[in-house]
Amino acid sequence: VTQLKYAAATYLSFRTISAVIGWSDEMTNTNARINMINDGLQKSSVLQKMIYDSAQRSGSAYGVQADVVAKIGLRAGKIFTNNKETIRFAETLSKMFGIAGASTEEQHSASLQLVQALGSGVLRGEEFNAVFEAAPNIMQAVANSMGMHVEKLRALATQGKISAKVVKKAMLEASAETDAQFK
Q1: Of 1, 33, 105, 107, whose CB is crowded by the most CB atoms within 10 A?
Q2: HEC per residue, 95-113
Q3: 1-17: pLDDT as tens digits
């Protein structure tokens, strides 16, 4: 029985150490990406705090929010004025996923598709569908911003006629309403 307790304690210690090392590696990678997107208007520690505050407001884990901000900044940073705008976009996105009740898998898939669209400069049909399935309110915000029905928006996406700048504008315009709904 004593050897069994010792073996169990040893196993749990190794699992804990492994988890801490994994978390440390993840944080190191996240911090490196955040440093890469820093627009120079603030220190990296201030940028991290801005992302942390955004995560708190959106009910997201810091690591998840930092990952989304970093991916948007790295792949589509050219369409954003500064890090503050990128963080606001990511926060609104997280809140919209929450309002829509999107699962973690749906959020991950739709975020990836949306970031790819932002990076390429155009939201296309497949990307539209992935985002619409996870959180139709995101595409509704784009439709509202463009003054059209979401089905017309779907047709434009199929034709590759929705620019990343239009998506960015729509999401930032929807941030106040999204904040109110999220509360």
Answers
A1: 107
A2: HHHHHHCCCHHHHHHHHHH
A3: 677 777 777 777 767 76
Task: Judge residue 105's burial from the number of C-beta atoms within 10 Å of its C-beta, 0-12 exposed, 13-18 middle, 19 or more buried.
Answer: exposed
Longest dimension (CA), the chain: 72
User: If you search the block for the tokens 């985002």, which residue do you land on?
Assistant: 131
What residues have CB less than 8 Å from 140, skipping those under 6 apart? 150
